[in-house]
Amino acid sequence: MSTIIFETERLIVAKIDLQNSLEIDKLLNIHNDHETMMWIPNKKKTYNKNSLEIKYSINKGLYNISYGIYKILFKKTNEVIGEFGLFPYIEKPTSVEIGYIIDRRYWKKGLGTELVKNCETYIKETLHKQFIIAQLIEQNIASHQLLRNLSYQLIAKTTIDKLIVRLTLQKEL
């Protein structure tokens, strides 16, 4: 099994195995599902296996074990259901930025809340950071509500496109 970063009651966050084609195929399906990805404001609309492997390879080379993009596994089925990112937040060295993509079939089951709560413990105890930053687009009401329920505070609103406003939220640990 891949290196585990942290676990929750129902989830495992672990390194992505670029040699595991079933794992890459599952992540590819998630990345190419329009409804799942509609909250991710990037210019890439479709991925192929090669472009996704390049994304993960570049990521792997950028960060040490504590930072980067990881897979999210659903423990009950051992299925890859998304990805979770931990990134240095350059503007504030005492902070770490998080991001997550969860397959839409797993929405509204409390998994996002479970994931973020447990990442907070990992960030505080392992990375020894004081703040967590999360950025999302304003229209992503569910993620915004999840973060507000976990006491994240809005610290910035930035227009990144004519129709897209990015919210930056922060939580002190």
UniProtKB/TrEMBL annotation:
GO terms for molecular function: acyltransferase activity, transferring groups other than amino-acyl groups. Keywords: Transferase. The lineage of its organism: Bacteria, Pseudomonadati, Bacteroidota, Flavobacteriia, Flavobacteriales. Residues 23-150 form the N-acetyltransferase domain. Gene3D superfamilies: 3.40.630.30. This is GNAT family N-acetyltransferase. It comes from the Bacteria. The keyword Transferase applies.
